[in-house]
Amino acid sequence: MLKKLILIFIPICLTFTFSAEARVYLDINAPTLIQIPIVLSKWKNVGKTPATLSEKVYEILANDLTLSGFFRVIDYQHLPFDLRRKEGIPEVLFLKEWMPAGGEILLAGEAFLDSAGLNLRLKFHLFDLVEQKDMVGKEYEAPLQNLRAMVHWISDEVLLQLTGERGVHNTKIAYASLQTGNKEIFISDFDGANVKQITSNQSINLSPAWSPDGRKIAFTSYLKRNPDLYLIDREGKNPIRFSYYPGLNVSPSWSPDGKQIALMMGIEKKSDIFLIDANGGNPRRLTKGHGNEASPKWSPDGKQITFISDRSGSPQVYLMAADGSDVRRLTYEGSYNTNPSWSPKGDLIAFCGRVGGRFNIFTIGIDGSGLQRLTSNSGDNESPSWSPDGRYLAFSSTRTGVAKIFIMHANGLNQRPLTQSKGGESSPAWSPRFE
Amino acid sequence: MIKKSFSILILILCIGLIMTGCPKKTMVKEEPSAKKSEEAARIEAERAREAREAKEREAREAKERELARIKEDEAKRAQEKKEFEQSLERKKSPGIEGEYFESKLIKDIYFDFDRFDIRQGDAEILKGNAALLVKFPNVKIQIEGHCDERGTVEYNLALGERRANSTKNYLISLGISGNRITIISYGKERPFDPGHNEEAWAKNRRAHSIIVSK
User: Fold this and answer.
1) B192–chain A nearest CA distance, Å
2) Phi then psi for B69, rounded to 5 degrees?
3) Cα separation of the two ends of chain A
4) Cα–Cα distance between B60 and B168 in angstroms, integer?
5) A383-403 residue pLDDT tens
6) Quick one: pLDDT band at residue A26, thresholds 50, 70, 90?
7) What is the pLDDT of residue A16?
8) Which of B29, B50, B52, B57 has most Cβ atoms within 10 angstroms of its Cβ?
9) What is the C-alpha separation between B171 and B181, in angstroms, rounded?
10) In this predicted structure, what is the pLDDT of residue A34?
11) How far is CA A52 from CA A48, A79, A111, A161, A224, in A?
């Protein structure tokens, strides 16, 4: 679907150039988040474009920017009367005119649906209301059914302009859900839209993992009365069983180059970390001890693997080289630390730790320093999974009753449920960015 | 018993002989010697015949007892087989390949939190399960390792694998062939009791055996 997305990049306002002393809009490394007030003026319908369409665009855009956590969105309906009526991209921006809006940034746009009603063109401009300048203007065109993806591209672009890094609005989250009564694999967009069930085999389906290109998902299923590894398209088609040694074939993690998969296997009558080739063959045991070894996850550079071992008497987070050598223990606090996940920038490990009988999400530096607790007083919180930009974590939480997937900033702020489902969800896995 | 009564018989005969015969020796005039030896031979033959008959009777009775015992054993085995057959419940899990049987005669064992060693009392239960497997050598089982809901999906899968394997190993140590036992870990995915308290958790930390072939 996304392949069909035709992107037209038109830098409309060529008069504007970045100066070397460009204003820092947002320091994403700041300990607390300061939200940028951004004005979203009314979108204009060009030609015979139905009003509902631009309203839809507006709604998705406002939601994206709110969910990103970096913005305080000022809705046009809350603007002074004169500004409320202004729609579309202003040809000339008068600072005085927009001052009463109360924002630092203005995002204005127009939607144009062709006469056949098939192709949609979205055009937007981002203005700095403080320095009175046009920051960027772009236009996207794609088949109408890709409306959401197009709006997400705009949101990503806004994040790039204001934070220096593209957003993750065009990513998805895979997870296991008991919604149907059986544990099946589901996928949802970053904003909770497009929830799609991709397995419906009524078996037990566990721990989904995205291939590095985002096209496939590996997961475990009990279909053949053994926890075997399967591969399925992200559309839910062409499932194949590809690792089915007797005993465990669970908790897959793809190497960044997509050539190998680390997983837990029961070949040695207990769970160990193994590597297999991407086609399921050639299993190599990486862990040699007597403990239970679980939950392997690759480092982003493909050189190391983090995993869980209870060789010390309780489950703790360990790191090792990708050939199984150079094992070292990372966590020493607490008696039950599991579910490690390596940050995309490579500097942090997020994990689930038990404190006072409850499970919570923590991060720790890969040198063992800087332990930070991200959740508290909110039920059990497990299975953290990083967004590809490293700015968010998806995790499961029982704070509202049955476990649901939540998303938060990597510093613990802005925690919110992914979807409005009934729950029974576990093991979120954040996709890479889709190109 | 027969042997004993036979000796008693001989004893009585001897006493009778002493009481009747002996005094006569002094009182009664001696019979002619030919007649006397004829009499002795007759008694001798009589005794041999009795001994032979007693021996035959003994063998016959022993054989009858053996037959009765075999018959009893067969009846017992048939009864056990019947009880076993009756205990079998045919099952099928949706989404998981294969039909199987469950029997209340094969009992579950339970584990402590985050442990996979066999508890003392549960060793006796496994001996019972092993005895049943000895009686029914065609039966093949699958041991399921289960966990309570606390802790993560993956770590519990590892723990369940360990629980199933330690149960399997114990049965092997009792002489059951490893070829008859497969294992599977369900981690925390198939709780026996859906509750969220220690009572439910204790029931869920278990090794449960199903019959995959009988």
Assistant:
1) 15
2) -65, -45
3) 11
4) 48
5) 999 999 999 999 999 999 999
6) low
7) 38
8) B50
9) 9
10) 81
11) 11, 20, 11, 28, 48
Alpha-carbon gap, residue A175 to A180, rounded angstroms: 14
Instruction: Give the one of B95, B165, B185 whose C-beta lies nearest to A203's C-beta.
Output: B95
Residue A279: both structure tokens together: 């086609």
| Both tokens assigned to B108 | 């579950």
HEC string of B42-93 equals HHHHHHHHHHHHHHHHHHHHHHHHHHHHHHHHHHHHHHHHHHHHHHEEEEEC
pLDDT of B29 reads 56
- Residue A408: count of CB within 10 angstroms of its CB: 21
Closest CA to A205 of A249, A245, A246, A171: A249
DSSP for residue A77: G
User: What pLDDT does A96 receive?
Assistant: 82
Please report the pLDDT score of residue B23 as a whole number. 47
Residues contacting A100, CB < 8 A, separation 6+: A79, A80, A83
Of B96, B151, B152, the CB nearest to A225: B96
pLDDT in tens, B136-187: 999 999 999 999 998 899 999 999 999 999 999 999 999 999 999 999 999 9
What ipTM was reported for this prediction? 0.88
Q: Are A360 and A352 contacting, i.e. CB atoms less than 8 angstroms apart? A: yes
Distance CA A180, CA A200 (A): 9
CA B39 to chain centre: 57
Contact A206 B153 (CB under 8 A): yes
The proportion of chain A whose per-residue pLDDT surpasses 90, expressed as a percent, equals: 83
Cα angle B95, B100, B106; round to 5: 130
Average pLDDT of the residues of chain A = 91
> Per this entry, what is the length of chain B?
214
Tell me whether A263 touches chain B (CB under 8 Å).
no
Q: Is A202 a residue whose pLDDT tops 60?
A: yes
C-alpha span between A109 and A38 (Å, rounded)? 14
Inter-CA distances, A277 with A27, A110, A254, Å? 41, 49, 10
Nearest to A229 by CA among A253, A212, A194: A253
pLDDT band, residue A423 (cuts 50/70/90): confident
pLDDT score for A11? 39
Which pLDDT value is given to residue B34?
73
CA A206, A207, A208, A212 torsion-angle sign: negative
Number of neighbouring beta carbons within 10 Å of residue A344: 17
* Structure token digits, residue B127: 């001996």
Cβ(A378)–Cβ(A367) below 8 Å: no
Check CB contact under 8 Å for B183 and A247: yes
Report d(CA A112, CA A150) in Å as an integer. Answer: 13
Name the nearest CA neighbour of A253 among A234, A224, A273, A272.
Answer: A273
What's the pLDDT tens digit per position in A336-393? 999 999 999 999 999 999 998 899 999 999 999 999 999 999 999 999 999 999 999 9
Q: Name the stretches of chain B with pLDDT < 50.
A: 1, 21-26
A238's tokens: 């062409």
How many beta carbons lie within 10 A of that of residue A143, not counting itself?
14
Distance from CA of B109 to the nearest CA of A (A): 19
Structure tokens, A20? 């070397």
Q: Where are the beta strands (DSSP E) in A77-201?
A: 105-113, 119-128, 133-143, 172-177, 184-189, 196-197
Residues of chain A with Cβ-Cβ distance to B182 below 8 Å are: 246
